[in-house]
Amino acid sequence: MPSSAAQADPIPANSIPTDRRLALHRTMQTIRATETTLSRLFADGEIPGFIHLSVGQEAVAAGVVGALGPRDSFATTHRGHGHVLARGVKLDLFFKEIMGRAGGICGGRGGSMHVADLSLGVLGANGIVGAGLPLATGSALAHQTRRTGGVAVAFFGDGAMAEGALHECLNMAALWKLPMVFVCENNGWSEFSPTSTQFAATLDKLGAAFGVPHRRVDGNDVAAVAEAATEVVEAARGGGPRILECLTTRWHGHFEGDPQRYRNADEIAGLPQNDPLRRSAEALLAAGVEESALAALVDSVDAEIREALEAARADALPDVDAAFRDVYTPTATLTAGA
Amino acid sequence: MPKPLRYVNAVAQALNDAMAADPAVMLMGEDVAAAGGPFKATRGLLDAHGPERVRDTPISEASLVGAAVGAALTGMKPVVEIMFMDFVTLAMDAVVNQAAKARFMFGGQCSVPMVLRTPHGGGLNAGPQHSQCLEAWFAHIPGLRVVCPATVADAYSLLRAAIEAPDPVVVVENKALYALQGDIDVNAPREVGKARLDRAGRDATIVTYGATLYAARAAADRLAAEGIEAEIVDLRWIQPWDEEAVFASVAKTHRVVIAHEAVQAFGVGAEIAARIASDAFDDLDAPVLRVGAPFMPIAFAKTLEAAYLPDADRIVAAVKSTLA
Fold first, then answer.
1. CA-nearest residue of chain A to B55?
2. Is some CB atom of chain B closer than 8 A to the CB atom of A326?
3. How far off is chain A from B102, nearest CA to CA, in Å?
4. Residue A43 in contact with partner chain B when CB distance is under 8 A
């Protein structure tokens, strides 16, 4: 299994209070249930285009985004549903966007690969592997220059480790001591190929080359991710860039409909053994949370998703004239300044 | 009476005044700070505005332009310099997939108020990778704006307009013009998409932009000596281009030559010629002709470069051909 090539640093993940763990669990449940629904909708032909699901990776989204403050920003990837849902983008606006409706958060112009909510500091999902890295670098530069106190996070997958953008951005962020965290969701797969066949280095060594501190965590342990993320985000806030590498697992294919013939059947069969939701639920039960409370949480998330989905189905299709108005910023006159 | 400035100093003055007027404006690029830029277009700005707002970047074109997009989405108005237009090839994702599309694909949630300044053009024997005119690439991308100032006054005013515009603007300067002298008017209207009537005439229209303006002027002088009055429209903006001004001139002269330094095939002139053909056909008394570079990379040797660049001879011949 590719992601087992690297071992996570041990973290005593026991300092997070139960109510916080419950909130993280709810976020993960929302992502899981949303994406499971999307998978079904895609199979039924209700979603056009491509979708790339993050089932199995929910702990990274919940743990990292949960560590961010309101001033912080992030750029995400083509596998970015979890990140924007964890940030609190409204569920109905999310579903409308993925389903190509007028009321979508991006008016149905972006779809799954371009969900953004600038009001929440979400600089967008990105259809180009590694392209969010420079965006987050620039966002961190703006935080530093404007003294907002914010941190910018660049989410990227291990496939992006081979992109020059990562190397260039690590260099710039280190040179300028930017308030920035590079978060790698390392699921072992670069689209359809094992990353071990794509990338000759390791992320810790790449970080070391630029003097950027690196931490590696079990990315399927939400408490471990949350603790590590809180630490690196606060360290980056005043002290320059950090790398957080989260070892995780991609349950589905590169995109929905990908039969994953390149993948070993045993690896796929073994994925639920390392289910971040199951592990989180077990930790909550051990901490004294009632099983009925967890069941109620699942029901409540499902009800929210049903409501959002119905709203999306009822929504109008986008209007071409409205789209035209956003190619450029509408201005009364194009005369700038005086 | 203001002292004449060189074109390159007008650029620096525009950057300085824009930074003084708006604290969100910042400069980024390779050697733009202490070194003052390869052509000295940013000389003195580090001292005036400090290292946070005048920032030297590593030689990482792709990521520094992408970073400008991210900074623009987070409250800054970055002005990025790409040392030679040929090098924007390295930054095409940032310009074409990120800057140009963010507003549209995010449903109008944001704008990307950034400027990419870059010099194009020959005349310095800089060779095939330091001389290309690639402006048509950017004019072809919905979401981008493209401007190409030909005069010292426009080097100032159009750059100020570009910085004040809410969307990404590619500002193309011809490096052969950097030493040109002229006056600026800091209070001139800063307009997007307006052409300038450079010379009035009744017999034919020469539509041009950038350094080719000077070849067009030389051509018009020679034609005038033969009694042919050519009108010159300096487009200034390539995206959006001033259809109204061009069509008005066509309606007056009924003959058109479009001249630019970029390769003629699939170029800016092709678009304008097609629009005139479809929307102003009744005003034409002759086919619309184009004068541009041949379909080959620009070469280093003086003789090869001279043969490549559109000159007054070819513009004169084209105008006469429309009158034949």
1. A176
2. yes
3. 8
4. no
- CB of A299 within 8 A of CB of A33? no
Chain A residues whose beta carbon lies within 8 Å of the beta carbon of residue B71 = 138-139, 141-142, 145
Instruction: Assign B56 to helix, strand or coil.
Output: strand
Query: Residue B125: left if φ>0, alpha if ψ -120 to 50, beta else—which one?
Result: left
Per-residue pLDDT of chain B (324 residues; tens, 9 = 90+): 567 899 999 999 999 999 999 999 999 999 999 999 999 999 999 999 999 999 999 999 999 999 999 999 999 999 999 999 999 999 999 999 999 999 999 999 999 999 999 999 999 999 999 999 999 999 999 999 999 999 999 999 999 999 999 999 999 999 999 999 999 999 999 999 999 999 999 999 999 999 999 999 999 999 999 999 999 999 999 999 999 999 999 999 999 999 999 999 999 999 999 999 999 999 999 999 999 999 999 999 999 999 999 999 999 999 999 999
* Chain B CB within 8 Å of residue A112 CB: no
Q: Are B284 and B276 in contact (CB under 8 A)?
A: yes
Kind plus residue range of the DSSP H or E element containing A265: helix A265-270
pTM above 0.90, yes or no: yes
What ipTM, to 2 d.p.? 0.94
Say which residues have a Cβ less than 8 Å from residue A320's Cβ, sequence separation at least 6.
none
Between B66, B142, B190, which is nearest A131 by CB? B66
- Cβ contact A172–B53 (<8 Å): no
Strand boundaries in chain B, DSSP class E: 5-6, 25-29, 54-56, 77-81, 115-120, 145-147, 169-174, 181-182, 196-199, 204-208, 230-234, 237-239, 256-263, 289-293
- The answer to whether the CB atoms of B68 and A336 lie below 8 A apart is no
Contact A327 B103 (CB under 8 A): yes
Residue B140 is among the residues annotated as catalytic for this protein: no
Residue B240: cis peptide before it, omega within 30 degrees of 0: yes
